[in-house]
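Hi F.,

I've been meaning to write this up properly since the lab meeting, where we talked about keeping a consistent format for the predictions we share between groups. The idea is simple: the sequence comes first, exactly as it goes in, then the structure tokens exactly as they come out, then a line or two of notes. No screenshots and no reformatting. I'm using this chain as the first example so we have something concrete to point to.
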Amino acid sequence: MKKFLIGFFLVFTSLTFLGCQLKKELPTGDNVGSFSSYDQLSEYLSQFYQYDNNQYYAFNALTGDDLAVPESATDEKTSGVNFDSETRDHSTTNNQVDGVQESDTIMTDGYYIYILSGEKFFMIDAETLDIIYTYEFLEGYINGMYLHNDKVVLLGSYYYVVESEEPNYKESEDDLTSDYGYDSMYPYLYYNYHYGSKIVVLDVSNVESITVSRELIFDSTYITDSRMIDGYLYLIMNNYSIQYYYNEESFIPKYMDSVVSDELIKLPAGRIFFMPNDGESFSYLMLVSFDVTNDDPASVKAYLGSTYQIYMSANNLYTIVYKYDYIEETQSYTHKTLIMRFAIEDNELSYKAMGTISGSPLNQFSMDEYEGVFRVAVTDYVYEEYNFTINNTLYLMDATTDDEMTVISKLENLGKPGERIYAVRFTQDTAYVVTFVNTDPLYKLDLSNPEEPVILGEHYEDGVSDYLHVIKDNLMIGVGRQAETSVQAWTNFVGVKVALYDTTGDVPVNLETYLVEGEYSYSRVTYDHKSFMYFTPEDADFTYIAIPVSVYHDNYYRYSQKLYVFKVFHSGDLELVAELQHMDSIDQYFDSIEKSVMIENYIYTMSYSQIQVFDMNDNFKYLDKVIINQSYYRDYAYVEEPISSELID
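Output, unedited:
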């Protein structure tokens, strides 16, 4: 043991010395250290890997504060659809932050509908349902898209496998021979798997001649998320090429920007940066930004780190890394979140500060920035020996300082014992937090004084809301699940719940609840907020919302699915106006409605296989459809009326 400690001390001392040397040699830039050469990058990475057989394998000898990090520095079919007006009112993507656009799989500009389905992109005339244009990723998938003026940006991934043979000949008696005793050749197939991210920009200004105006490829990366602000696309990607090992030929991130080169090029060493990270393994956090309307080269940076999820405001990007540590003395685990803030400067993302809190956020809606304060609601699981406790906390952090994001204040002990956070929504000085075990406490919080956040009121009801959406200043919709408690005190979900709340006072008031009953029922809105469609027609006193709901029956053997369309009257009423479906006499899995858009008085429903259009002014009469993909298999027995529903006052 003593020898091990001495050896570790010597290694640690040498690495600390190396870190100090790197601190002296690195140029300044981007508020973190950048690399001056590929050799310097390789030398730094070699601290955390063991060299064997021309590869460097991660051994994770150093963690947390032991990392040697340099000092901060700089760096013709008639569908029956008829539009009366030239300008067409329409729904938009469900974005979390005003002015910060998120990618989606269905969009409209009022004249065309833009659809992603698997590896294909479709541009469809909203009036005739003619497919105007199709684009296909032949070796990959399209995961999201943006629409900005006359540009459509497709985000996807690519992959392909290259096979090669390396024969092994018998050269001695010790070598393998065939069962027949004569020399033989044993071929070995080697599979080289190539993957990465691909971005395609389409110019749709002339529908008669749509062209690819730009293409970007990022080798060995996955897109974690993206945002668009005023035509600038921001990509947040993880490059795992050095996570477990690297070789001397492939430790440098590579990318292609067609306005610069038609081939992959190495990212310059000066665009690769140190940053605080999880301390357990290395990846590259790739941050890219470019203007989709011109041919200026993209800004590409790589940081030694990674991210699991993000939140982005009009001024900052926040990336999240989780960290779990075991404390042997107390036989307990710590559950922490590292938050990195990147400021938008001249349309580029530059690292500014890091903060650490206990617990982790549920999703992007658990985070928010308002007037220089970053707010994040987390659930912390504290494991000690064979027991664990759950703590829910709202942190308010300074989002204006460099180097460190300090905690201004925190509001602890949200929820009853054993409850975790299920939904969060911020709106300026107010936050709404849902915790749940058996009943659903909906908390309203006052954040007007960042140094003293307070709970204004609590509303309790059966079930839980998984997604909260503000309709107007005093109206909010909750989409979630109805629950019942069994004799054994187990919580069973028994239906989909759509609740309308009046949030005028300190305590939210449930005005109406609509239940879609059915065992195992769920709505994809609970995990994909883009499935929640809302649209307020011009001068209307109501807002349409549309929610897909799926119901399984008979131990998952029978299945049905519909799109529920509601009117939320601004006076405080909730009215179901339509139940739409793509089902035929034989239910097909790919006919499940995933999302929808509205143009004037028409609603377009999207499934994997087709687009259908209904006239909202004529009792949601079915008008027409267009097939975009064929359904190749059938899954579940069709049920004519499997769903029972009721409106509860």
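Notes:
The CA atoms of residues 240 and 617 lie 52 Å apart.
The helical segments are 2-25, 38-45.

If this format works for you, I'll send the rest the same way.

G.
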